[in-house]
Amino acid sequence: MRLKQEADIRRLLQEKYNGRRTPEFNKDIIRLKKGEPLDYVIGWLPFLNCKIDLSLQPLIPRPETEYWTEKAIAVISAVGRRVKIADIFSGSGCIGIAVLKNAKNSQVDFFELDKKLIKQIKLNLQLNKIPVSRYRIIRGDATKKLKNQYDFILANPPYLATNRKAKVQASVLKYEPRQALFSGPDGLFYIKKILQLAQSRFRPKGQLWLEFDSFQRKSIEDLLKKFKYQKWNFYQDQYRRWRYVQI
Fold this sequence. Notes:
The chain is of the alpha/beta class. 38% of the residues lie in helices and 21% in strands. The protein has two domains: 1-42, no CATH class; 57-246, 3-Layer(aba) Sandwich (Rossmann fold), CATH 3.40.50.150. The chain has helices at 6-16, 23-33, 38-42, 63-77, 94-102, 115-127, 142-145, 170-175, 189-198, 217-226, and strands at 44-47, 50-53, 83-88, 106-112, 135-139, 150-155, 202-211, 233-236, 242-246. A seven-stranded mixed beta sheet has the order 5-4-3-6-7-9-8. A two-stranded antiparallel ribbon has the order 1-2. Strand 1 (44-47) and strand 2 (50-53) form a beta hairpin. Helix 4 runs parallel beside helix 5.
């Protein structure tokens, strides 16, 4: 939902205010001119047949994340039984909610540290009419709170490298939550923690799907060897950049 045409932006704002040029409409135009992301101004975005509310300003779900989540859903849906899934570093809850909405055999545990984002996840679960019997929400650091075993662990952790901060878009730095973006000088702080833990949290034939920054591929492969993983495949996103690994 990265629309740049002014006509498209105005159309979305008109939809938000039912076609009325209210004072709030004009305030939103000013917010956009100051560089605030369109998705925050509109207040929600679509994500794999779901409506993801952004009113509490979680990390904005990216098209790249939507791309690999759809691939994961296809694999999950093909499992001929009930599947237990952990959505770690949940943020808005978009990954786990999309799984619940599109894979009827899924049960999801959401892990999120930020109290405000726990509220955001609950709001989005209600918005998308997900039955409470199909999920749990666990507040805390997933690398410490992940106690049970899962068929799938889905992870979009903070992975931006602080030493590459100059390459990050200014509006992202200004408006999006930094704790959801950065993960040490090389961006691997949380990825290392996940890889150290995940194998012991797999059910038989369990899988980890992990998003990362394209330049990190070689370092992640080295970590997979170090932690004695047996099988993995790296994949590119829709823009031909290395983006996720299925382990």
